[in-house]
UniProtKB/TrEMBL annotation:
This is Glucose-1-phosphate adenylyltransferase. Pathway: Glycan biosynthesis; glycogen biosynthesis. Residues 310-413 form the Glucose-1-phosphate adenylyltransferase/Bifunctional protein GlmU-like C-terminal hexapeptide domain. Homotetramer.
Amino acid sequence: MAENRRAGPLARETMAYVLAGGRGSRLMEMTDSRAKPAVFFGGKTRIIDFALSNAINSGIRRIGVATQYKAHSLIRHLQNGWNFLRPGRNESFDILPASQRVSEDQWYAGTADAVYQNIDIIESYAPRYIVILAGDHVYKMDYEIMLQQHVDSGADVTVGCLEVPRMEAVAFGVMHVDENYNITDFVEKPADPPAIPGRPDTALASMGIYVFETNFLMDQLRRDAADPGSSRDFGKNIIPHIVKHGRAVAHRFNLSVVRSENEPDDEAYWRDVGTVDAYWQANIDLTDIIPPLDIYDRDWPIWTYADVVPPAKFVHDEDGRRGSAISSLVSGDCIISGGQLHRSLLFTGVRQRSYSMLDHAVVLPQCRIGRHARITRAVLDRGVEIPDGLVIGEDPELDAKRFRRTANGICLVTKPMIDRLTY
């Protein structure tokens, strides 16, 4: 459990800037109509709520969110759920869509450009520090601790890093550090990742979290914008330049991860739920007796917009027709009418009719499950209506023809897929 959960003075001088413009194409059809940060997670929240909640819980009261790809549902969620910050209390919350502010034909060209195009807005608040965050990861972290390290070390940039088994780091940007965790090199998706000194089997992977003094970052963004060969990206351009010409320091996530008393001490929980398999697994993990992520932690709540809905309801009590749930999460406004749930997670407003069965299923809001349907190891996108008697997850070849089936056997089911079914 984090020792210091009170708002620190550094956080009050800081702006959190969340990069939330990415599609997340590896989530396949789940991001056809929404950006990855807007994807539902954990029964009530969206993925972006974790980064935003970390900022609020850390004491940061100035937040900006840069959006780009299919941002309507994300912007609506932010307006509904994150409009409680008040300018009269020196607080602010800005939604910053890609609005071609530099030229009429230029959207955000990269992660660094998404900040550069809004320099005037950032400077109008005059934050002393700025924390750059990715809006598409699931984790709990006290940014005040990272800010304190940044100030104490005198670094030009502090990079949040995750300790991972060395050969798993081939999918990340990897920090090569010395014995004091000064970053000496940044390698993007290396075939042979550099190890942490003295720990040959462990590497430091970038989390896409950066702390800067604001004036220094603005200078770096202006310099980068003047370079015609730049990709306008933090990981590809800004951070490598500082590593070469300044001082970059790694911040280990296990120093600032927030754990409740119910969470295991041996894991610093962080997930990139960027594939259908990873998304399904992270949601199903919440049905464990002691899940690796405690979403019930009142000391570090995950804030979100909550629909005003009635409680969940279970009806019928006959053999073979009994509304029941075992090791499952069921959100408000769900009605389990004579159906069964096992190791499943239901978002708001799901209706499950009699004699149906859900096993290891992640069911997004407003889905309808018909009578005698059987769904196993699947993700049902929002608003899917499963016809009576449909079986998913038992015939791999048939599933692959009808739905998006992953190599690990997880089926993603969307409304267009159901509409195309013929009987």
